[in-house]
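Slack export, channel: ligand-projects

TW: morning all. Re-posting the request from yesterday since it got buried. We need the structure predicted with the small molecule present, not the apo form. The ligand is flavin-adenine dinucleotide; the SMILES is in the block with the sequence. No rush, but it would help planning for next week.
GE: picking it up
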Amino acid sequence: MIATADNERHKDAVIIGGGIAGLQSALDLADQGYKVAVVERQASIGGRMISLSKVYPTLDCASCITTPKMSAAAHHENIELLTYTEVDSITPGPNGHTVVVTRKATHVNADKCIGCRLCEYACDTEYPDDFEQGLGSVRAISVAFTNAIPQKAVLDADYCLACGLCLRACPTDAIEFDQQPRQETIHADVVIVASGFQLNALTIKPQYSAAQNQNVISPLTLERLLAPHGPYGRVLRPSDGKIPESIAFVQCAGSRDQSIGVPYCSRVCCMYAIKQAMLLSGSLPTADITIYYMDIRAFGKGYEQFYQNAKAMGINFVRGKVSKIDSVDKDDLLVHVEYTEEPQDCVRKQRHDMVVLAQGMIPQWNPTSFSPVQIGSDGFVATPDSVSPCTTNVPGIFVAGAAAGPKDIVDSIAEAGAAAMEAGRYLSKRAHLDHTARTVALELIA
Ligand SMILES: Cc1cc2nc3c(=O)[nH]c(=O)nc-3n(C[C@H](O)[C@H](O)[C@H](O)COP(=O)(O)OP(=O)(O)OC[C@H]3O[C@@H](n4cnc5c(N)ncnc54)[C@H](O)[C@@H]3O)c2cc1C
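GE: finished. pasting the full token output, ligand included:
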């Protein structure tokens, strides 16, 4: 039951999504003095970037460069973070947009929680950790991850046994088993959609055997395996904990394929596969690493050099199309690949310990169900004005980052800055119009 305590408030801007794009837009607007609310459906801001190991092309530690931005947003006097919050509707009107959101029940009083995690240590119910791609486990009450922002515990009612261990452990009486979700309404002059992406199913191509063999993994799983603070602290293959000696990357495994509804290129897969291959060769220096690709798209600043460096490091690049992957001897994998370069038209079978599938990037959120924002044929938010690529079909609603299409971090940040700029321009035009209307009205009265 949703309690109807309708809290209403006004903001200059509402940003949907607390990933790197949403945070950049929020900071850019807040620095100009605008009041901003960031609505994030997860318990922490940070988006996909906070779960990556290192980022191409610089190989900077992802959390080292994301955490300061998260922290800057959390401490900015003009930014309010609404985490664990879903957007219910966006209704444009003559005086701005009405955004209705639901604050999901965390069953923890956020004002009282001090993030000490004593509840988490006391809890003895565990379930697979989404942040670790299911490789680790998490307690039924926990802080989302080590450097989560805010550092507040969330109790997952689906797994909680209501045993009371957390209640007894909490030093501030913050646990509220009977907390209900509540709806809030935000009146905002502008909205920026920065809801990012998700990957299509690992099993979307049954011929790659991901449903049958745990060692066919997602690139996000490999990000966690490579992260220094990841589930195992080193790279082990999921089925039996063996250190893999031969790892393959299969590119375009969920993109550039009409038959699965993703005809477009996901743009980031070539580069992150090269990055992951380089990181793997650092942590497993004797392993054989092969990237099966159709063509390498290394289009950004410094990316071609990054690709050449990977080749020089001994990463094996095979140009060809993988037709299927079979399990052999239970845990190993046999990759069937048709070469498209010398020796051409030759089909080979190669055995590997672990295979990483480059899944396609698809939108995380479709706003059309409850807002007039138009969606393009690829499912991402449409940007009809090619000279103003952050604007949508609705005046005052802008888009940034991967919500508008597959994009890497550099491009997401640049676009987020542009969206904030457009939004700021829109806000100052509105303020100017309001001022002119008031002056005209006063003159008429006088
Ligand atoms: C395996 C992998 C490795 C990568 N490595 C790199 C790399 O090394 N370098 C690089 O440049 N790029 C890399 N990328 C790409 C990078 O992850 C993206 O460019 C970046 O995350 C896009 O940021 P974003 O803020 O647009 O979206 P996201 O990171 O997806 O953030 C969107 C946020 O919006 C929230 N959200 C969604 N819907 C709603 C809703 N309805 N209400 C409230 N909140 C919502 C989500 O919970 C999320 O927090 C990689 C991608 C993958 C898949």
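GE: first-pass observations. Residues 3-105+180-196+364-433 form a domain with the FAD/NAD(P)-binding domain fold (CATH 3.50.50.60). The chain has two domains: 3-105+180-196+364-433, 200-361.
TW: perfect, thank you
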